[in-house]
Amino acid sequence: MNKGRGIFIFAGAALVLCLALLLIPVSSQYADPCGSVLWPAKVWFSDGGELVHATTPPCNDARMDRVPMAAIIGVIGVGLGIVGLATRRSASGTDEAPPPARRSSQPNG
C-alpha cells in the first residue's frame, strides 16, 4: 500500500464526517423541527407578541453547538489531505535537486 494513500483515506473520512455533521438534522429539547446546520428548518412562532417565520432560539443554539466540532474535524481533514499531497510529492522524487554539473579538469581557454 502506498505511504500517502492511508493519509488520504483518513482525510476523506474526516471530510465526510464533517459534511455529515453539517447535513444531519439536529435535535433540541423541544418538539419543533430544527433542520441541519446548513439548511435550518424555519417555523412560525411568537416572538414578543409578533408572529415570525424563523428558526426557534433552542434550535439555533443546538445548531450552533455543532459548528465548532464540524469545523475542527474539517480542518483536520484538510490538513491530512495537504500532508498526504506533500508526502506523495516527496516520495515521487519531483523535489530532488539535479546533480551538480561536472567540472572539467582542463581550463576553458
3D architecture notes:
The protein contains two helices and two strands. With 109 residues, it is mainly alpha-helical. The mean pLDDT is 84. 12% of the residues are buried. The chain has helices at residues 3-23, 57-92; strands at residues 43-47, 50-54. Helix 1 (3-23) packs antiparallel against helix 2. It has one domain (3-92). The radius of gyration is 26 Å and the shape is rod-shaped. 52% of the residues lie in helices and 9% in strands. Strands 1-2 form a two-stranded antiparallel ribbon.
Summarize the structure.
By secondary structure, this protein is mainly α.
What does the average pLDDT come to?
A: 84
| DSSP E strands, number | 2
The whole-angstrom Rg is 26 Å
Biggest sheet strand order reads 1-2
First-to-last CA distance: 55 Å
Sequence-ordered SSE layout with sheet pairings:
Layout: H1 3-23, E1 43-47, E2 50-54, H2 57-92
Antiparallel strand pairs: 1-2
Helix pairs in contact: 1-2
Provide the descriptors you would attach to this structure in a database record.
single chain, 109 residues, 2 helices
